[in-house]
Amino acid sequence: MSQRKFFSYSALPASLLVLGILRAQGAPDNGRKYIAIAQGPKKEKAPLPLDSKKPSGPASGNISGAQMYKQMCTSCHGANGEGGKGYKRPLIGDQSVGELATFIAQYMPPDAKKKLSADQARRVAEFVHGEFYSPIAQERKKPARVELSRFTVRQYRNVISDLIGSFRRADGPEEKRGLSAKYYKTRQERDPLLERVDPEIHFDYGTASALPEQDDPYQFKMNWQGSIVAPDSGEYEIILRTDQGATLWLNDMRTPFIDARIKSGDANEYRATVQLLGGRAYPLRLEFFKGVTGVDNLKKLKEKPVQNAFLSLNWKLPHRAEETIPQRNLLPSMASPKFVLQSPFPPDDRSLGYERGNSVSKEWDDATTEAALEVAGYVAENLRDISGVKDDAPDRDAKLRDFSRQFATRAFRRPLSEEDAKFFVDRQFEKAPNAETAIKRVVILTLKSPQFLYREIAPADKIDAYDTASRLSLALWDSLPDEELLKAAAKGELSTREQLEKQAERMTSDPRAWSKMRDFLLLWLKVDHFPDLAKDKKRFPAFDEMVASDLRTSLELTLEKLAWQDKADFRQLLLSDEFYLNGRLARLYGEEMDQKAPFQLVELNDGKRSGILTHPYILASFAYVDNTSPIHRGVLIARNLLGRTLQPPPQAFVPLAADLHPNLTTRQRVALQTKPVACSGCHNMINPLGFSLEGFDAMGNLRDNDNGNPVDATGGYLTRDGKEVKFSGARDLATFLANSEEVHNAFVEKLFQNIVKQPIRAYGPQTMSKLQDAFKTNDFSIRRQMVETAVVAALTTKPE
Hints:
Elements: H1 3-6, H2 17-21, H3 31-39, H4 65-72, H5 74-77, H6 97-107, H7 118-133, H8 135-141, H9 153-165, E1 179-184, E2 194-198, E3 202-206, E4 220-230, E5 234-242, E6 245-250, E7 258-260, E8 269-276, E9 280-290, H10 295-301, E10 309-316, E11 323-324, E12 330-331, H11 362-381, H12 383-387, H13 396-412, H14 418-431, H15 435-448, H16 450-453, H17 465-477, H18 483-490, H19 497-507, H20 511-524, H21 545-563, H22 570-575, E13 578-581, H23 583-588, E14 600-603, H24 616-621, H25 630-641, H26 666-673, H27 677-691, E15 705-706, E16 709-710, E17 715-718, E18 724-727, H28 730-738, H29 741-756, H30 767-777, H31 782-795
Antiparallel strand pairs: 1-2, 1-4, 3-10, 4-9, 4-12, 5-8, 5-10, 6-7, 6-9, 10-11, 13-14, 15-16, 17-18
Helix pairs in contact: 4-7, 6-7, 7-8, 11-15, 13-14, 13-15, 14-15, 17-18, 17-31, 19-31, 20-29, 25-27, 29-30, 29-31, 30-31
């Protein structure tokens, strides 16, 4: 059976009208439908028109769009587009009336001898769009609302860490990078010969002295201290390599994280893993020495040849290759310890494109119980450090009771009522056998309370300054309000836009704000889950694990540069030709740089790249191991940047193998596979967007030919208002996207949903347009838009 006959629309039932309305967003629900299409449908009686004296079908005079829909579509799609026997999916989407009308006029009804006229198609499209299809129609039928929600997993972990951290010394801002170093002549010396800041720990002294002022290669000692900044949340592997003695402390200055003071055989590599939260600094101390103790021992040592001495401190980030801990992730000042929860949690719902705390399962409830027990044990074990109460204090119980009240107050994000103080604190101290047990009970009760676990508790008309403070901190930090924010709430200084803007501007200077924005941008680009970047070794022999890891680092550094400066312009994300590269990447992507050069900002002068869509990591992520994938690249642009709604393909998609069509380019194979009408509805938009990036191969490098044929990187897009835009390559595409109102609006909405964790329409019908206007007014500043979004969400008490 030919492909043309297999997908013939002459065999489709009339009730598949809204299959077209959804831009062929689905086609049949499963493969069995294709069998039915191939065999031909069973003949069904057409529904009678409203006026049975008039003929049914497209020639039915000047009847309204509602009447035509009822006559020809309700049997399969339902009276209100809810779905029916022929097409079970509801009729919802984001196409304009014009787009719907064009598709209906071209393809619908598929079994009619005469198609609908342009005017008739327009009337049907207007009815469908206004009645139940469009976002506005959906909102009218089922208005969105701010829903009661619990902490997401990310929020819970951040909140717990910051709750414990609020009882410790706050970390100050730090501009310098590297570790504070002190160099000593011997292991016993207390006065350093040299003090400086070292950019990283990667030294090979050979048989020489580590100190220029000292001519003794047999003995010396160095101490480094400061902090390590984790960019991602997850499990880190720390690797210490040395052939001498060393000890490393990380996030706990009492117990060594790695103890290599005594060598065992020829071992010179020591590894340990630790869970860290992204966007936070953890205290670190490292001691390294060469030599022995005692004069006699040293005399014997010097009778032998000088030993080599080397030391390196590396890490392996989640889903990355091992590397020396870089200078940008080291601070010379020592941060306070951070509590990092170890208890596992079930994943949050992400069906709407952002994490939501919208469901409570037994697994989640069990996880919060395990977490509360873990926190209680940690607090009891570190009680003196956290509470500041000495073990032999004469009024210890009273002070610990005050500490417990503070703990519950900070956990609930508001002052305790007398009733709560009695239940959560006083009663526990009265009934517990000792203060330690009482505090454990306080912690567990507090962390299992709905007042802690849930975000939106107060009715809309009862929201107070403390609710506003929590909304602001959760939006910007995914965490608790800090002391300054709570003080402002207590003074009534969170009631006006100006007051909230001042606080929000301050809060975006905190690393936690960039950590949240960074995670959103990676989600926006659909690389938040670390795509597999393995490439075919025959076609791309230089592409290995280190290159993939470097590309990820390059992307993240580039995003921070383009998105988080004070006046960072969203449009530059799509237009800038500056990327961060190190020596290894520069060699692969055509730039001149020393092979061992660290990451630095490089202006690419190839004339074809433009913005983040042409970053090699993005291009390599949305490609196959051996070839490009215009479909994946096109879907990324359509869905994530333009905000278009795309349904999954009707059946599992397997690309046509290149060896089946050895003379075709990738573009030609994709066009061939997506030619059937059941595919064309979506792929008429997806393919031309993806084709515009065909000038880059599967590892993101420039290419002029594909399979021996010149690359065709022309493309296009039909805008929502019916304007057809043509692209001659990636730069044209990027220029259009950077200035597209569709892209701006989609970014505004996605940012709101991801930082507020609620639908934007729940905050009033004017909220979206106000935020869109603010984006333009503020010259498309990403950082400022985050402030605007947080302020709007914090101020809204009820829909306008």
